[in-house]
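Hi there. Long-time user, first ticket. I'm pasting a complex I've been working with (about 768 residues overall). I'd like to know whether the download I got is complete or cut off, because the file seemed smaller than I expected. Thanks.
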Amino acid sequence: MAAMMWVEVLARDGEVRSRERIDSPEARIGRAFDNDVVVDDPHVAPHHLRIFRGEDGELVAEDLGTLNGLYAEHGAARTARLSLRGEPGLRIGRTIVRVHDGAHAVAAEKPLTPPRAHLRWDLVLSLGLFLLILLLNWLNLTTEPNANVVLVPMIGLAVALAAWTGLWAVLSRIFFGQAQFALHLRIAVTACIAIVLWDLLTETLSFSFAWRTIADHAALGAWAILGATCYAHLAAIGPRHLKLVVSVVLALVTSGAALQAVSRAESREAMGQRATLGDLRPPAFRAVPLATTDEFFREAADTRARVDRARTKEPPPGGPLGEID
Amino acid sequence: MRHLLLAASFAAGAAIAQPPPAAPEAPEVQQATLSSTAERVYDHAKPRIVQIRTLLQAAGRQSSLGSGFLVSDDGYAVTNYHVVSRFALDPRTYRLEYLAPDGAKGPLQLLAIDVAHDLAVVKMERGDLPFFQFDARALGSRLPKGERIYAMGNPLDLGFTIIEGTYNGLVDKSYDERIHFSGAINPGMSGGPVTGGDGRIVGVNVAKRLDGEQVGFLVPARYAAALVEQARKGPVLVVDKAREEVGRQLDAWQSSFYEALKAGGFRGASFGPYRGLESAAPWVTCWASTNADQLPRPRTAVNTTRCTSATGIFVSDRILTGRVDFSYSYYQAIDLNAFQFAKELSQRSGGPGIDPRGGKRLTAQECRDDFVATSEATRPPLRATWCMRAYREFEGLYDATLLVLTQDRDREALLAQLTMQGVSHANAVALGRRFIEAIEWRR
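Hi, the file is complete. Here it is re-exported in full:
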């Protein structure tokens, strides 16, 4: 039993293409059909490699005098003999081969999620989202109730959720082999709830603390939620270069957020602030103490300072024609 | 309420330069018998009237047109400030030119301006033209209502024209003195003279009401006479400093206006269970509106009162300043809950909005929100927003808005707004403080 070894030939995408059990103490690998393991690679010699056990029982690969030689899996230096004790992989021609001792330790058993285990949780989340939207719609309803007002956004949301989830499921199917629709839907629904709650929270805080800046910058939080959502979707798909893909997606989200922030700041400078009270809540939501009129006008003098700054920041009036003289 | 009669704009001027050829003309119009007085007045006035053109310095083409009239034998002429405003504010971009009835053209010198009364005195380098006398009765405001008076000018660049109309005394409920002239005044006539039957100056064409028929306004002759006097005595306006002078006059105007507002007194006014402050000055008029008769039936009852001073000082194209508005809207939820009621009030402003966008002459608006309460028990807690924007060319002048919402009830509230245009910070804060401290709950 101890003499047993497994030879795996890997496909180009890293998946195991074939796996041979070798019971003899030595295995021969090459393109010829008298080998123990046959490799279909024109850059591999007919008799390329011999695997045997060294003095202390370790597996050793030996080049049989080939044109293209033998390399460690990630190595750059050609070698005639390669010990496979630490790293089971080697490269011949353009093919990766891995040799495992029968005694090679494997990872412990992963607990299995029974099918439909999350179903109840999914249902609760989805129902929660729709109830939340319904509740907010109702709280914001100032006209006569109307089926259209309630149903259209709901249907819109459902369609958007289905489209978003479908997209990730397709990607998942391509790269992972399984659509994982339920998992992606769960992520999307959670993201929706987070965004709705974030909106509600920032608007409420903006009222409670009488601080417009909170509502003005709420979009940054929404972008962060979008980034986290994309990360969750990607982690579920688990592509080979997860780190790279995640950094690309996060970079995209970050630049989107930055772009929006810049354009907002610019338009804010040109468009000014409207003389409205913003999104109001019932008076009980006030979280800051009442200012006296003195304090209010003292603080409000800050608007004067700001417009005075804006006044002097512009080029001197007179227009471009004034400069010709 | 737009009172300004703008000089024909560049685009309009171009459009009206070529009137449509197929203008309907009745072939056999009976020869209208023009009143012989008008004929006499016109003959007398014609050599004394000039067209005043603002030309683009670079292109040498007219950018706006108005009228003016000679008041001395050495070339002094009176017109409206708004006819020469482009030149006054941007002397490097524009220049002034007159066109005399005999076809002579020449440059004009700007000697004095009176922004508050919309007047300007210009001077041409010609001494050979006859000129107008001021009517002594008009200077003393002793003209009888109903007297025939004659407005002259160059409406829409169609040629010198005389319009017979009626003197209707000074406009009631107006802070700035204006003669109410019942007759047609049109763009291009701005700055033209209005005389009595004896050809003496009664007033200066300045504006018309767009929402009425034949409702024109004149600047009383005495302001024109005073400005001519001032121009004669000097110091002469330095063109490059004209902008500072406009700023100085606007500041002086607002300072006496807010004095007059204070002197006019304030009175409490009830809006449902709330009380607020209204100006008792005779020239502040109030209007009320309600949504009670709307269909479908509103879920919030809104009763609005808006008081306005209806003052309008022309500063430059599209900038009319000097108005103050007090607006109160009493909101009462009919079947809305507290959240829905708050939503209903969200994004609303109580009165006329000020465009928050920045531009060439005004900065973008900046606002500040807070919760405020005055110490007395009858004063409800308030949510307040204070917004300002500055006039770029006139240091120390602002448009200010104070928006206040009562926070003592879940399902009823008073939304109050004070809007002040062209005001100093000190005056704005003083009135704003008065406004905010007057809001109380009384039941």
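A couple of notes from our side: DSSP finds eight helices and 24 strands in chain B. The first helix of chain B runs from residue 10 to 17.
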